[in-house]
Amino acid sequence: MEFNFNPNELILERIRAVEAYNPATDELIGRLTQIEEPVLETSATALDVVDAMGTPIHTFYNAQQGKFSGSSSLFSLDLAASQFGAEKVVATSDKKITMYASETITIGSDATVVLKHVPVGTAGAEIKYVKVINDNNTFGETFEVATAAGAGKFTLNAATKTITLPEGTTGRVFVNYAYESDNAVSITKTTDAIPEVQKLLIHAIFHDPCDANLVYAGIIVCPRAQLDPTAISLSLKSDGKHPFSYALKKPYCADSAKLFDILVSRD
Length: 267
What we know:
The longest helix has 8 residues, at 77-84. This protein has 1 helix and 18 strands. It is 3% helix and 52% strand. The strands form 3 sheets. Strands 1, 2, 3, 4, 15, 16, 17 and 18 form an 8-stranded antiparallel beta sheet that branches. The two termini are 20 Å apart. Strand 1 (11-21) and strand 2 form a beta hairpin. It is mainly beta. The chain folds into 2 domains: 11-88 and 190-265, Pnp Oxidase, Chain A (Roll); 97-185, no CATH class.
């Protein structure tokens, strides 16, 4: 006799991936693969019906909604962009991104230093100031860009990435400047943008409790999920996590009141 697949108690090994999609086009927005402390919650507002003496007669539960939260073990640029309601801009050869460099460079015997990148900015003054670093690592004399090197002045040839200091200047200099890169990405946080509504696919791995070798595929489908922008915390430590929290709500204009589906398959 053939039995239909109808599991009940399962071992949840882990959430293996969280994928965010544009709900209108199904285009992938971002994917997380290192998920820690994932939690799926639901909530509702209770409204008690009482009699004249205040005795509860019945309770209605309204405004049901859900929440999916967790942390990524790795800092995610895609997640950060979604949390900020921003676009992740990827540089190309035609659309470069302005980056910033701070370099400490040893002055050559000819009183020149060569930068790592080609500086950009006002022509002839792409770098306005450089500072000498003293032997005790404090800042010394400040030099200002000019058309000719001299007392307190330096010249800059942006095309060759070369700074020329007054003759006899030795030691090291600190230089900060902007340059353009076609190997970069950027995310901009503004005060007038909020996270867009997304569709979530939360992929899980299950095992049969009676036979651990039996592995089942699970997925939680959330048709309407929005990242919570009220308290975004990005740890700037090497062992820090990247937390997130999605509010799950039903599609307001849809006939269905669905918050999410939990699907399990042995295929």
